Amino acid sequence: LLASYVEYLAPIWSGSLRKLARKGVIFGAILHDPVRNFVVGPHWWHRWSIACGYSFLREAFVHETIELDTVGSMAQLRTTVIPYGIHQFPSANKSREEIRTNLNLPLDAKVMLAFGHIRDNKNLDLVIHAMTNFPEVYLLVVGREQSLGQRPASFYQALAIKQNVADRCRWQIRFIPDTEIANFFEASDIILLTYSKKFHSASSVLNTAAGYRKLCLASAGEGSLCSVIHNYQLGIWVEPDDISSIINGIKTWLENPPNPLWERYFVENSWLLNAKRVINSFH
User: Fold this and answer.
1) What distances in angstroms separate CA 257 from CA 135, 195, 260, one per listed residue?
2) Least confident of 39-43, 124-128, 216-220
3) Angle in degrees, CA 253, 197, 228, rounded to 5
4) 256: left (phi > 0), else alpha (psi -120 to 50), else beta?
5) What are phi and psi of 216, to 5 degrees?
6) How far, in Å, CA of 213 to CA of 260, rounded?
7) Rounded to whole angstroms, what are the CA distances from 244 to 134, 171, 211?
8) Under a CB-based contact definition with an 8 Å cutoff, are residues 131 and 166 in contact?
9) Reduced to 3 states, what is the DSSP secondary structure of residue 89?
């Protein structure tokens, strides 16, 4: 439940863990997605499953201070803020020029990368609309489709055709093995994290982008993503779900990009610090 939006069977498996908790076993969990607003099935089951998923915990680890919606009373639950460390993947195995040539991208183009699962809350449609204002900007979409009622890649491809930007879009709709990830970041200039205002989680893609020192164009609701972008100047923050703000953000990127505080970010958001805080909470 705590690691996957689509896990809804906590009422079935949580009982045995509650019995262990009553016997003195201490459970902790990292709540990477503390706001569980992705609903599958009846709302009453959604809420019950969340309550059961929290019911046996004593320690909750989050990436941003937040009041957890545990549904039921959880007086024993302690919350600790931990950093979200940088993801490390293999280096690119081709040069930027080779990668762009293989993707049919002009060597001098400005390339935006949308990486990861294709989901409605990433506002890819608004980005495609915004591209009509920037004829020099290309879009690279890399990742698998998200099931469960999310719009497929074909929706965005049709929209790109309608907006007359299809010739500047490149699509890699598939699972990307670790050995290929770096190539797509190497080929790109900025990473799109234009989440909707309902998104309150930390972003795995941000911490992958940071590993390659790539700026981000980002939006979301209040949460870890907003804080780290602002605190370390990791990119341009735009208002969520707003095409005008995305247009202004792209313009800022092209004309006056920020200077990220990479080294400070790496020191203050390390896996070592993450692990130390987790260990200390169990003492």
Assistant:
1) 19, 20, 9
2) 39-43
3) 55
4) beta
5) -125, 150
6) 8
7) 13, 25, 29
8) no
9) coil
Q: Which amino acid is at 226?
A: C
Does residue 230 contact residue 238 with C-beta atoms inside 8 Å?
Answer: no
Q: Which residue in the block uniquely carries the two structure tokens 């609701």? A: 221
Pairwise CA distance, residues 101 & 208, whole Å: 23
With bands split at pLDDT 50, 70 and 90, how would you rate the model's confidence at 200?
A: confident
Q: Mean pLDDT across the stretch 2-26?
A: 87
Percent of the residues in the chain that have a pLDDT greater than 90, as a whole number: 80
201-to-76, 213, 236 alpha-carbon distances in Å: 23, 21, 18
For residue 186, what is the enclosing H or E element?
Answer: helix 178-186
Burial class (CB in 10 A: 0-12, 13-18, 19+), 278: middle
Give burial (CB, 10 Å; 0-12/13-18/19+) of 79.
middle
Residues 65-73, mean pLDDT to the nearest whole number = 87
Report the largest interatomic distance among the alpha carbons of the chain, rounded to a whole angstrom: 64
Segment 74-82 shows an average pLDDT of: 92
Mean of pLDDT over the chain: 93
Copy the structure tokens of residue 139: 């879009």
Write the CA distances from 219 to 7, 25, 227, 265, 276, integer angstroms.
Answer: 26, 39, 11, 19, 30
What is the Cα 188 distance to its own chain's centre? 17
